[in-house]
Specification:
The structure holds 2 protein chains of 2 kinds.
Chain A lengths: L7 E2 L5 H7 L9 H10 L7 H5 L6 H9 L3 H11 L3 H7 L6 H4 L3 H4 L5 H14 L14 E5 L3 H12 L3 E6 L7 H4 L10 H10 L4 E5 L9 H7 L2 E4 L5 E2 L12 E3 H9 L9 E2 L1 E5 L3 H12 L4 E5 L11 H9 L3 E3 L2 E9 L2 E12 L5 E11 L2 E4 L3 E2 L6 E2 L2 E2 L3 E2 L2 E2 L12 E3 L11 H24 L2
Chain B lengths: L5 E3 L2 E3 L3 E3 L8 H10 L3 E7 L14 E5 L5 E6 L8 H14 L4 E6 L5 H12 L5 E5 L13 H4 L2 H14 L4 E4 L8 H9 L4 E4 L3 E3 L2 E3 L4 E3 L1 E2 L2 E2 L2 E4 L4 H12 L9 E4 L5 H9 L4 E4 L1 H6 L4 H15 L27 E5 L9 H9 L7 E2 L2 E2 L13 H5 L6 E5 L29
Parallel strand pairs in B: 3-4, 3-18, 4-7, 7-8, 8-9, 9-10, 10-17, 17-18
Antiparallel strand pairs in B: 1-2, 5-6, 6-16, 11-16, 12-13, 14-15, 19-22, 20-21
The chains are: A alpha/beta, B alpha/beta.
Chain lengths: ~450, ~425
């Protein structure tokens, strides 16, 4: 390999290191640990943690049930509100949601470990195959769900429980959406996303068709014709651009796509990774790609974010996690130029940034460069609107580039609901997508029941 | 530095902490370790009459109530009196007293309710050099079915009779250990005094079934599928024991009868409370069984530091000082008014005070103010019941504030102040 070539290599680590590096980053609580932690819950009245949970899980109740040895009841409390409670227990930024609201933070700066307790209860029913839900009596109504991610599956489950026949159309080969394809492997070790999907589908009344992309194998007008209602939870198909030249040069990657490759690679020692990595962005995806490339053996991984630590989409806990994994985070700089050599990226030139008197981000004109064998874009995703058009005219109203929905997750088009990342106004979190799907299912059921009543 | 020397019924010990007659005090090995750790005295586990040794179960002897995080708050046993030969025990008692002359060594006894049985054993004990005897009239299981232990303690005539025999046939001080499994503790206490007891000790364990195993549907601890009631003790019984100690301490007929306080004593604080309510010393078992003998270190040092802080030079300076303040309900001042008050700086917003008051008491705590979560006492509804103080997880966040004399209670509209108890109250029909 010539010295000028990017240093990309598989098997940077000893074979046994991969299993260790990608194993569960936060192992499950033991029975005893769970009891001790459960006892810390004060069983608040009108608890702030419930308010802070996008799905409104009755947290003090489920924790009390753990303490009292009623794990099945505990899991029911969780899954009734959030059918993807097992994955959410692992991936939710609890420090800014339920745990951030825990009153224990006030006197002792240490919240009850709600996420870990939620995992304890939900794992129990998943591990023992205890089905807590059943499909409703058939209503004869049919609903199409586009996208088998958290929003779509949550909606499908809710509808199936109401007795509607649901068909899920998924573009990829597996269900689970970003749980399966877009989250760091060590957060969801042990095939938990697929086990959760299996648990969810076991309720019955849900047919699944994979390899079905909206705008290709299926179209919105056709689904509207063939089904009584349609829910769109298709996620976001494109990534933001850096706004610099040569963005398509070899070595510049979309972080989401690369995480997808990593997640679907059986033997991680076969995955080539650079020696020097630059990640541009400040959200969870930036943390996940940076930390995972470090754990694949990259030597020098730097996240560069254009504003300060408080502005990052990734929580302070996530930032610390990257840092203890040896990732360097540099703030207040934005990419100004990609450095290339022989058709491959060789580094990134950054310009320092600052805020003007009204808080607008400005370049200072000063610059520095970082050498890189791989550059990852983790600066957010975009909705691809084409599949929502019909012969050039838009079928659905958008809002800031995403599908406009109301509080019941109804779109501007009758009979069509939407939720998850493709819908406007969300939090871009699994838990928020689940809530979208749940609310849409309630609204769709109401709509279908009314339609039935009117014959 | 405060002097912790305690003298009960003429028996002196360097501190008031004795190990109660129980499994920790069954043999020389344990007692040597206890004295090395600093215990002031020991009541040797109950000896029975000479003959074939007592037989214990070989299944579980103990059961417990745990908190969720496995703290033991209640404990129970179905063990009997010592199951070692009488001569072995007597030999070890003699040796221990010789090795530890400054510590109190009392021997617990339980033999059949016959004069000859007591007459036979008393000289043997006296011969060991032990400082005194304690009559086990309290054990509620196993031995009581054979007419001993609580079966004696529950019949005042027997208490008096056996106490008298012991005083007659021994020159050792006699401590009578009372069972709480009676309706009125004063009856056996007065009987002991009538029989000439030098002191009483209480409480022995409370008859109890600890739990039922929900898999086997048998009482726990279960021995080969069956469970028997046992004797309950530990933290949970402390209030029951305190009350019984206080009843005897304030009883004019029991005046002058020293008390050794037993029941749920875990810490120097517990000990100080028992002594303030009339006990001359205390006996401990469960706390040692769950944590080892080393706990006495904090008991000694904590009590001494507290006494120094309060200016008590000797135990007598605070012993029984709470007794005159222990009265019956009818003597409480009905014109005394308090209101709960929440320190908003300490409040963590858990809302437990609100829901407790709202659901089960007087609807006297708000849940919001100006549309925001906020917990505040409504004086016009608050009866000062203390429930919110009890349920609040933050120490000193909710306190009771005394309304000043002359002010008006917004709940009743009445002027606060003065003293009027039930015996003086106009609503009392039998006044």
């Amino acid at each position: 390999m010539a010295a000028t070539e990017p240093d990309l290599k598989a098997a940077r680590l000893p074979a046994e290191a991969y299993a260790r590096n990608f194993a569960d980053s936060h192992p499950a609580l033991s029975h005893n640990q769970a009891l001790v932690e459960a006892e810390r819950c004060l069983y608040c009245y009108d608890a702030p943690c419930i308010t802070a949970c996008p799905t409104g899980i009755p947290i003090p109740d489920f924790i009390r049930k753990i303490a009292n040895g009623n794990l099945k009841g505990s899991a029911h409390d969780i899954l009734e509100q959030n059918i993807m409670g097992a994955v959410c227990a692992r991936v939710c930024p609890t420090e800014v949601l339920c745990e951030g609201a825990c009153v224990r933070n006030t006197p002792e700066d240490k919240a009850v470990a709600i996420g870990a307790l939620q995992r304890h209860a939900t794992d129990a029913v998943l591990d023992h195959g205890i089905q807590l839900f059943a499909a409703g009596a058939p209503t004869g109504k049919r609903v199409a769900v586009v996208g088998g991610g958290p929003a779509g599956l949550s909606c499908a489950h809710g509808l199936a429980r109401c007795g509607h026949a649901v068909t899920v159309f998924e573009a990829r080969a597996k269900l689970g959406g970003l749980n399966e394809y877009g989250i760091a492997a060590y957060k969801v070790a042990g095939q938990i996303p697929q086990r959760e999907v299996d648990y969810l589908l076991a309720v019955g009344n849900i047919a699944v068709h994979v390899g079905q992309r909206l705008g290709h194998e299926i179209t919105l007008p056709q689904l509207r014709r063939d089904f009584d209602a349609v829910f769109i939870g298709a996620g976001l198909g494109a990534v933001n651009s850096l706004g610099v030249a040569d963005e398509t040069v070899r070595g510049v990657h979309d972080a989401v796509a690369w995480i997808e490759t990593l997640r679907q690679t059986g033997d991680l020692s076969t995955l080539p990774v650079g020696r020097r990595i630059v990640v541009i962005g400040g959200g969870m995806t930036a943390i996940d790609i940076a930390t995972q490339t470090r754990r694949l053996g990259a030597e020098d991984v730097t996240i560069v974010y254009r504003r300060g630590p408080d502005n990052m989409g990734a929580s302070a806990k996530e930032q610390r996690w990257a840092q203890i994994n040896g990732v360097r985070i540099r703030h207040w700089a934005r990419p100004s130029r990609l450095l290339t050599q022989d058709g491959s990226v060789s580094g990134v030139e950054f310009e320092y940034t600052t805020l003007d008197t009204v808080g607008k981000l400005l370049g200072t004109g000063e610059r520095y460069s970082l050498a890189a064998d791989m550059v990852f874009k983790a600066i957010g995703q975009l909705l691809v609107p084409d599949p929502l058009n019909d012969g050039g005219s838009a079928l659905l109203d958008l809002d800031a580039g995403r599908i406009r929905v109301d509080d019941q997750r109804r779109t501007s088009l009758a009979g069509v609901w939407a939720g998850g990342d493709c819908a406007a106004g969300g939090l871009d979190l699994t838990v928020a997508a689940v809530e979208d799907g749940k609310r849409a299912a309630v609204s769709i059921d109401r709509f279908l029941t009314a339609a039935k009543a009117h014959g | 530095m405060a002097d912790l020397t305690a003298t009960l019924a003429g028996i002196r010990s360097p501190n008031p902490f004795w190990l109660a007659s129980a499994p920790p005090a069954d043999k020389a090995y344990n007692i040597n370790r206890a004295f090395e750790a600093g215990w002031g005295g020991v009541v040797w586990k109950t000896l029975g009459e000479d003959g074939p040794p007592v037989v214990n179960v070989s299944g579980p002897r103990y059961g417990a109530i745990h908190t969720t995080s496995r703290q033991v708050i209640g404990f129970n046993n179905i063990e009997l009196i010592t199951d070692r030969p009488l001569q072995v025990n007597l030999g070890e008692i003699r040796q221990i007293k010789r090795d530890w002359p400054d510590r109190a060594l009392v021997v617990s006894l339980m033999v059949p309710c016959e004069e000859n049985a007591w007459k036979a054993i008393l000289p043997l004990v006296e011969d060991t050099g032990a400082d005194g005897i304690e009559l086990n009239f309290g054990c509620p299981h196993g031995m009581s079915e054979r007419g001993m232990g609580a079966a004696v303690g529950q019949v005042p005539e027997y208490v008096e009779m056996v106490t008298r025999w012991c005083k007659q046939y021994s020159r050792l001080p006699v401590i009578v250990k009372l069972t709480p499994n009676v309706t009125n503790i004063l009856v056996p206490a007065r009987a002991a005094k009538a029989g000439g007891a030098d002191a009483v000790s209480l409480i022995n364990t409370i008859s109890a079934v600890m739990s039922v195993d929900l898999d086997t549907l048998a009482p726990s601890p279960s021995v080969d599928g069956l469970g028997a009631h046992g004797g309950y003790c530990g933290t949970a019984v402390k209030p029951i024991a305190l009350r019984m100690v206080g009843e005897i301490a304030r009883d004019p007929e029991c005046a002058g009868l020293p008390i050794s306080g037993i029941g749920g004593i875990n810490t120097w604080r517990d000990a100080a409370e028992f002594m303030a309510l009339g006990a001359t010393n205390v006996q401990v078992c469960t706390a040692a069984m769950t944590h080892g003998f080393r706990i006495v270190g904090d008991m000694i040092d904590g009590l001494r530091n507290w006494m120094d802080e309060k200016g008590h030079a000797t135990l007598a300076d605070f012993t029984a000082k709470a007794v005159p303040k222990f009265v019956n309900w009818e003597h409480l001042n009905l014109d005394y008014v308090v209101k709960a008050q929440i320190d908003q700086d300490l409040c963590i917003g858990c809302g437990r005070c609100h829901i407790a008051c709202e659901d089960t008491s007087h609807q006297a705590i708000t849940r919001e103010k100006d549309g925001k979560r906020h917990f505040e006492v409504i004086d016009a509804e608050c009866v000062g019941c203390n429930l919110c103080v009890v349920v609040c997880p933050v120490d000193h966040c909710i306190t009771l504030r005394e309304l000043p004399a002359g002010s008006v209670d917004p709940r009743t509209g009445r002027v606060v102040g003065g003293y009027r108890n039930w015996t003086q109250h106009p609503n009392n029909p039998s006044r």
